[in-house]
Design brief:
This protein is α+β, with helices and mostly antiparallel strands and about 190 residues long. It is built from six helices and five strands. Keywords: Cell outer membrane, Lipoprotein, Membrane, Palmitate, Signal.
Amino acid sequence: MRIALLSSTLLLLGGCSSLSLDSLPSLPSLPTITGDKVLGFITPYRVEVVQGNVITKELAGRIKPGMPKGVVRDMLGTPLLTDAFHADRWDYTFTIARQGAAPQKRVVVAVFDGDKLKALEAPDDLPTEREFVASINTYKPGGKPPRLDLDEAERSRLPKPAKSAEAAPTAAAEGVAPGRVYPPLEAKAEPRS
C-alpha cells in the first residue's frame, strides 16, 4: 500500500515539474507567482519591509550645522550605516516596500568635522510628515472621514451630568475638580507632641 501511494505521489510531482506556462497555448495570460495576482484573482502575501530612519523635511530642518554628534543621534536616531574608514560620515538610509504603495528609498547623509556637524545632505524630494503618511497609507475610505468634534447645538442636546451632593463639598475642600473624589495617596501625618 505504501509503495502504491509513494509511486502515485512521485508520478504527480513529476507531471507538475514538466508543466510550464509556455506549453499551455490556451492560457497565455496566466500570470506567474512573481506577478501581482496568481490565476487572476489570488493576491499572494508579501512581507512589508521597513528599514532605516524616517527623516522628514521638518526633522531635517531642525538639524543645524555645529550640533554635536550626540544631539544629531538623539534627533535623527542611530544611523543605519557607519563606516570605520569614514568616521565623520553617517548614512541614514530609509527603504519601505508595502503592498498597495509605491516602494520608497531615501538617503540622508550627516557629515561631521570632528564632533560637530558640518552639513546634512538630504534629497530635494524629502517629504513632509503629512506627505510621508499619505504615501504609505493604503487604506482608502469610500466617503468623507468621520467628524470627531461636536458643534454647540449637539453639545446642548447632551444630558447634563448629575451632581453628587456629598462629593461636591469634599472635592471643593480638597481643591479637586467638582464631582471627583480621590482617596489620599498617603496617610496624613499626626502632629508630634
